[in-house]
Amino acid sequence: MPDRIFNFSPGPGTLPYSVLQEAATDIVNFKNTGIGLIEMSHRSKQFMAVADETEALIRELMAIPQNYKVLFLQGGASSQFFMVPMNLLKSGQKATYLNTGVWAKKAIKEAKLFGDVEVAYSSEELKYTRVPRDDEYSVSADSQYLYFVTNNTIYGTQFPTMPNKDAMLIADMSSDILSRPVDVSKFGLIFAGSQKNMGPAGVTVVIIREDLLDRVAETVPTMLKYKTHAEKDSMFNTPPCFAIYGVGRVMNWLKQMGGTAAIEKINRSKAALLYEAIDRTDFYRGHAEKESRSLMNVTFNLPTPELEAQFIREATAVGLDGLKGHRSVGGCRASIYNAFPQEGVAKLVEFMAEFAKKNG
Ligand SMILES: *Cc1c(COP(=O)(O)O)cnc(C)c1O
Q1: Which of these is catalytic: 172, 225, 227, 324?
Q2: Which of 74, 157, 158, 174 to mutate to test the pocket of ligand 1 (most atoms within 8 A of CB)?
Q3: Contact 158, 152 (CB under 8 A)
Q4: Judgement on whether residues 175 and 64 belong to the same structural domain of the protein
Q5: Spatial distance between the Cα atoms of 41 and 49, rounded to a whole number of angstroms
Q6: Which of 41, 60, 207, 338 lies at a 20 to 30 A Cα distance from 279?
Q7: Average pLDDT over the chain, rounded to whole?
Q8: How many angstroms does the Cα of residue 300 sit away from the middle of ligand 1?
Q9: Are residues 252 and 265 in the same domain?
Q10: What digits encode the pLDDT tens for the residues 265-304?
Q11: In 150-197, at which residue ranges do the beta strands (DSSP E only) sit?
Q12: How many domains does the structure of the chain reveal?
């Protein structure tokens, strides 16, 4: 692999090298059509086949039941913060939210524009170091859905299992979709921005149970109704063609890796290596509580902000890039999504040991 460094970026995240190579060829001349992938009509036979294949692979890898639609939308995962309540909540109706980080809090703010929001749990005062167990909150019987963020990208926390509540689940899975098997039938809606675990930036994948499509009020603008996009197979207007293609190639790669059960094993072993390195000394301190630790974003601190800056600087110099924590929390964060190679984790662990020995 020439010219590749280890890219711990939280998003857009690292992609499989084989996918980058395929894309580089297809952008110039897609399957010997003489037309580049990103200059071809979205209604062409070739591109329609790309979109169909991407959808089919997502369905297969996530074992999505027949009564769900898979949509390719724009506006980023952030637009789902308002689209979910705009489509599913009527004025005066209640929805339940779990405040486990910045992305959850932003979704709560938007939901309040449309209905009555019940925040059943918040770890904000604990600096978002944990996610709740089922017995730590309850959902009102008249709540329309329970909204949560499966993996809190910034803080490095993750629901170890999905909430087991008598409520329709809605999840922002932007940073851990396809990192482990999930029972889609427990959800009314799942969404994820593509740029962390699915492919290049530019598309938001929405998986929605079909019966929910009709809940939307007539007064909602056409482009903002899930129903509009569901009825036209995400071709109501020009879709983000390159991103849909890129997601398809990453799905193909994931299938070759053995799918979500196989990648979960790899993800667990990658994360375990890093957490062991953190727990081995007092020099490194994990941000998240142990039971809430994320397999995707590993967050940790060093004794001082100066040492953290030095750590990030020296790591970058040896080809370990993107380890700076989110600007709102500081510290360090290693994002190790599906496509992040195991050798990169091993190299970081080695670097951490040397750095602690020299500076501890
Ligand atoms: C990155 C991220 C978002 C925001 O995604 P955009 O596509 O930039 O809007 C939302 N939720 C989670 C969990 C994220 O990690």
Answers
A1: 172
A2: 174
A3: yes
A4: yes
A5: 12
A6: 338
A7: 97
A8: 21
A9: no
A10: 999 999 999 999 999 999 999 999 999 999 999 999 999 9
A11: 151-152, 157-158, 169-172, 187-193
A12: 2
